[in-house]
């Protein structure tokens, strides 16, 4: 399991997005990327986080950032989520868990005493050279884009 930190090279990946198209992190070379990992489509926290990125998408774009969401849900689930909430950015379907494992966010969780594996809500800010500038591991779902913007200022 990776323990990625500021200054590390962001692991490249290739997987399908919500439209069934192949997307790689390297497709965004030369751009700043906000890569956010979330547990599950259409759940309260994940919806709040994704809609916050949607609502502030233009200001993030104006600062030179692309937004990419990643969860282990499949393309069909992502498409439904994107359509329902009018999300204007790429959602990656990491159904084989290769991306969450490469980024070290596939972790053991504990709910009501029951242990299970799941995605730790984490945001990586990746610069134009593919280097991780910041890691946010305590994400405020309702203000996730504001967290990012504050780190950029």
TrEMBL record:
<dbReference type="InterPro" id="IPR013766">
    <property type="entry name" value="Thioredoxin_domain"/>
</dbReference>
<keyword id="KW-0049">Antioxidant</keyword>
<keyword id="KW-0676">Redox-active center</keyword>
<dbReference type="InterPro" id="IPR000866">
    <property type="entry name" value="AhpC/TSA"/>
</dbReference>
<dbReference type="Pfam" id="PF00578">
    <property type="entry name" value="AhpC-TSA"/>
</dbReference>
<dbReference type="GO" id="GO:0016853">
    <property type="term" value="F:isomerase activity"/>
</dbReference>
<comment type="function">
    <text>Thiol-specific peroxidase that catalyzes the reduction of hydrogen peroxide and organic hydroperoxides to water and alcohols, respectively. Plays a role in cell protection against oxidative stress by detoxifying peroxides and as sensor of hydrogen peroxide-mediated signaling events.</text>
</comment>
<comment type="similarity">
    <text>Belongs to the peroxiredoxin family. BCP/PrxQ subfamily.</text>
</comment>
<feature type="domain" description="Thioredoxin">
    <location>
        <begin position="4"/>
        <end position="153"/>
    </location>
</feature>
<comment type="subunit">
    <text>Monomer.</text>
</comment>
<keyword id="KW-1015">Disulfide bond</keyword>
<dbReference type="InterPro" id="IPR036249">
    <property type="entry name" value="Thioredoxin-like_sf"/>
</dbReference>
<dbReference type="GO" id="GO:0140824">
    <property type="term" value="F:thioredoxin-dependent peroxiredoxin activity"/>
</dbReference>
<keyword id="KW-0413">Isomerase</keyword>
<keyword id="KW-0560">Oxidoreductase</keyword>
<dbReference type="InterPro" id="IPR050924">
    <property type="entry name" value="Peroxiredoxin_BCP/PrxQ"/>
</dbReference>
<keyword id="KW-0575">Peroxidase</keyword>
<protein>
    <recommendedName>
        <fullName>thioredoxin-dependent peroxiredoxin</fullName>
        <ecNumber>1.11.1.24</ecNumber>
    </recommendedName>
</protein>
<dbReference type="InterPro" id="IPR024706">
    <property type="entry name" value="Peroxiredoxin_AhpC-typ"/>
</dbReference>
């Amino acid at each position: 399991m990776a323990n990625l930190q500021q200054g590390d090279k962001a692991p490249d990946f290739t997987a399908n997005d919500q439209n069934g198209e192949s997307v790689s992190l390297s497709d965004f070379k030369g751009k700043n990327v906000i890569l956010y990992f979330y547990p599950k489509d259409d759940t309260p926290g994940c919806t709040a986080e994704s809609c916050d990125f949607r609502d502030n998408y233009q200001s993030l774009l104006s600062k030179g950032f692309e937004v990419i969401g990643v969860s282990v849900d499949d393309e069909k689930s992502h498409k439904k989520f994107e359509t329902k909430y009018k999300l204007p950015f790429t959602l990656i379907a990491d159904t084989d868990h290769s991306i969450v494992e490469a980024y070290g966010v596939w972790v053991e969780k504990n709910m009501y005493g029951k242990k299970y594996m799941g995605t730790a809500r984490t945001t990586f800010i990746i610069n134009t050279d593919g280097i991780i500038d910041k890691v946010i591991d305590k994400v405020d779902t309702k203000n996730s884009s504001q967290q990012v913007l504050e780190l950029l200022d």
